[in-house]
Amino acid sequence: MRTILSAFVLLCLLLTCVVLLPGHSLAQSLRQDPVDQQNPVGGAVPGDTLGVNSQSDYWRAVREGVNGNVSIPDKKAGTLIQSEGEAWRSLRNGPLSLYASWALLGTIVILGLFYAIRGRIRIEAGPSDKTITRFREVERLGHWMLAVSFVILGLTGLNILYGRYVLKPLIGDGAFGFITQIGKYLHNYLAFAFMAGLVMILVMWVKHNLPDRTDIKWLLQGGGMFSSKLHPPAKKFNAGQKILFWLVIVGGVSLSISGWALMFPFTTHFFAGTFGKINMILGTELPTALTVLQEQQLNSLWHSIMAVFMICVIFGHIYIGSIGMERAFDAMGSGEVDLNWAKEHHALWVEENQDDIHDAPGSGPAPQPAE
């Protein structure tokens, strides 16, 4: 499993590095003005397509759009021109793709610098000859269902955003088309596993992730992350893990809602309803009369933004659970963690769970030679 997670991080790093290469086609397209700007000369539109009049009022009306009446069941066909589509395309292929690349690469760089400065967080007291049960089977099942589905969803989603710029030139049109089609099916169906895992961890861990006064001391001491001598007491989850938990829950729910709207298009009006509530609370004037096509465009953008945000958050989680902290992976690997590790990071939880302490495998007395 650690190999899969490491491959996920390395692939994301490769994607962002390749995308941002100065000579790469996506980097060039993101930095170039896609329209050759030409000014009218003598009242004539460039290219002489409209004679001597620019007809700005005409094109302004075209961009505002007009909904006609159609007799077919698909009422969206009544809109011949939907100019928001160009704005959506420009935003998705321009700022969104560029800033997402910087966010992914920046997160990896920050974690790399932290590791270079702080190093791996070791067990100060050294390994113990005892372990304590950290997570039981059902808890690990919920975690790994969420984690594995998220990794696959993240990879297939990044392929949608960057694949044609990164993979397609490397493997060719046919292989890229096949991989993308398989990725589409995986993305659609594993989304339900992701939602199921999200519900499982919410039900199992919500009571352990409610804020309490021990979190204040943990935060003031930086969780002991910057000093090997500090070990602020914590219960089953410390303040940092609680923040991660709620980011995953809120972000996961947002991803699930926008993803559901994309899987079942033209059936939801989440943004119109949300904008209406925001207007009522904050007194803003966000648009609430959105067409189903506008809803889809907003869902697509929001889903991409939240996905990149969640990937950056999970990068930090993967770092701490692998190379960042000694023996941290055991918690979700075997479910048994070293007792000294638990005392240093979750002392209050250890005091409450003395019955779950066991001898570590192979730590019993040495066998005596036969007489």
Automatic annotation (TrEMBL):
Subcellular location field: Cell membrane
GO MF annotation terms: electron transfer activity; formate dehydrogenase (NAD+) activity; formate dehydrogenase (quinone) activity; metal ion binding
The protein's required cofactors: heme
Domain of life: Bacteria
Domain Cytochrome b561 bacterial/Ni-hydrogenase: 134-333
Pfam family name, one: Ni_hydr_CYTB
Gene3D superfamilies: Transmembrane di-heme cytochromes, Chain C
GO cellular component terms listed in the entry, alphabetical order: formate dehydrogenase complex; plasma membrane
Protein name as annotated: Formate dehydrogenase subunit gamma
Lineage: Bacteria, Pseudomonadati, Pseudomonadota, Alphaproteobacteria, Hyphomicrobiales
